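Entry:
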Amino acid sequence: MQQLPYYPFPVRSGPVRRKLTYDVVVYTEDGHYFAEDADGHIFCQDSPTNCMQEAVNYVAQFGGGRIYVRRGIYYPSNTTYLPDNVSIEIYGDGNETVFKYNNTMLLFVFWPGLSSWMSYFNLPSSYTPSWNAVFRFRDFKVDRSQSGSNNADIMDVVYAKYVEFNNVEVIDNFRTTGGGDAAIFLINNITAIVEKCRVYNKSYGINVGGYLSIAKNNYVVNTYAEGIVAQGFTQGSTLPPGYSYGGLSIIEDNTCIDCGRGDEAISIDYGGNSSNAYGVGIIRNNRIVTMNYTTNHMITGVNVSKLIVENNFMEGTTTAAVMAPTWNNGSGALYAVFRNNYVNVTYSGTNDVLVADNHDTFIFENNRINVTYSNISSNPGDFFHIYNQKEFIRNNVINITIPSGYTLGDVFGPISYGTDSNPTYIVVEHNNIYINGSVTSIINFTENNSYSVSKPFVAFNSNTVNAASGSTIDILFRIVVNGNVEYSKIYDNLINFTPSLSTIFTCCFASGAVWYVDTDIPASQFNSTGQVLFLKRNAGTATIASGATSVTVNHGLACTPSKVLITPLAQPSGNLWVSNITSTSFTINISTAPSANLSVAWYAEC
């Protein structure tokens, strides 16, 4: 193995010269291309791949090796194919090693045993990959900006044990809005890592696919379909021995500018045709910004069993969901977490801004969300469409602006999912919500189950709801179910807007259902087609008629109150006291009958 002299290597005291080793060096001189072995023997000159294929073949006969591509501009006219069951590293001199070409070929490709790249999920029956191939690509630049061809991937690797791209730059001129046009396309590898790469102007930017797949510290600009996608083994793919569908996919610390114009900026994608959710996905510390175009989806998760989306920055204009963690989800999704994200977008679509469906548990917390609706051709859908078993929405700051003349559906809802054996559990608490415009409701819980066995739990606590002057909110809190609501808590919410809360009603479930509620909202502000039973406390106003000495009050509690407080709202004609306290009512008495109707405020508590 030969040593490379005079390779610059920075240290604290300044740059020094460090010697590196290689097995083959590829270089260009006087317009010609050469490949030289470690002993200085030239074994290739001016091949269609600029001696890259010959270099690969040379090291492959020894099980692999390091191929160093010296600084220079290379114009390959054929794809370089990588063999199976080898370990090969190809590295250059950073942006000074440039591959330029202008046809539909790929630069590097590893598709063992396949005659067509479109069939990468299933191998021919006559071929089984070794799953031992290891490839590392580092420190070079690919320039297809002068190409006139469409639908050309650049570097593809499938069925490798390990594949890594590090500090590779890809420039294209963005010719297609369809598939088959990816910069770095990795599928069905055991481990796949793309780090510190830069991609410009492709339909698909970076697709990193491995049972362990990591996309980290990359910079992607102007992609039509997808910016950065990570995935493990998806349903229908060929699996290595001992592996099952799924994996761990991580997308972190990336920047995506004008990505996902027709699809998604960043996504963990386990396939849209799966009947079950697979894999674990983490999307964190990424920056998604639209500057010159409009993004479709900013962040999505497709058929992911467990997904964490945290500490991301999203800003610009979008036409579809900003966040959809279970797009096309099958069964088996365990949980999704969306926390500590900052979203500041202009929304020009007509559907839901946030979507979370089909998880056992969904957590939405500590986010800062600013959404301005614009260019609406019809009334938009809901702000947050939620359909999960257990939902925790807490400690978020949400600002929503809707154009005049349009009405947003629900801020949270319609919330639905549960069954008799696994009822829905919803907590919405400590959120600060600001509305500028018109919305139908703040929270809408809608169910079709009869709940003959178990019943849902719903809580709307300690939230602050503000609205700009002229804004309207039809319903603060809405429950629509066919069966009983076993426990609902609506307490300590601060409502700051005009019209007042007395014109906003909490309402509406099926006739005959019973809603058990713990609330500080007076009974007079409930509009219900079923029976409301206040679990712990209730308040209202009763009237002792002129000439009468008592009035019976139905307190509406689900228990016999231990405390009843009364306050006359005018000067009484005698002493007031309470008697006959039962599980359904109590009596307010007066010692001297009033000469005019007397209103008495009451408060009852278990």
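DSSP finds one helix and 54 strands in the chain.
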